[in-house]
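Weekly structure sync, notes
Attendees: PL (lead), two postdocs, one rotation student
Agenda item 3: pending single-chain targets
PL asked that the sequence for the first pending target be pasted directly into the notes so everyone works from the same version. It is reproduced below exactly as submitted, 76 residues in total.
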Amino acid sequence: MTDTWREIFKGQIKTGTGTGNGSSQTIAHGLTGTPNFVSVVPTATGTAVTNLYADSTNVYLTVTNGKGYGYVIMVV
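Predicted structure, written out during the meeting:
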C-alpha cells in the first residue's frame, strides 16, 4: 500500500482555505509543535495578509474582508 503525503506528514502539516473578515483570525493547527513554516496565499486579487504569526497551538493572521486564501502550516 502506498502512503499519501498526508499520511507521511501526519501531525506535521496542515493545509486549508479560508475567507478573510478584515480582523484578526485564528487557525488552530493541531501540529506536534510550533510551526517553523507558514505560507498564506491569497486566492483573489486585492487581498492583503498581515499580522501573521504562530505559536504552539494556533496561527494568527488578518486577511482582507471577503477575500479568500489558502494556507500550508508545517513543523519540519
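Discussion points:
- The beta strands are 13-19, 24-28, 37-42, 49-54, 58-63, 68-74.
- The first strand starts at residue 13 and ends at 19.
Action: rotation student to compare against the earlier draft before next sync.
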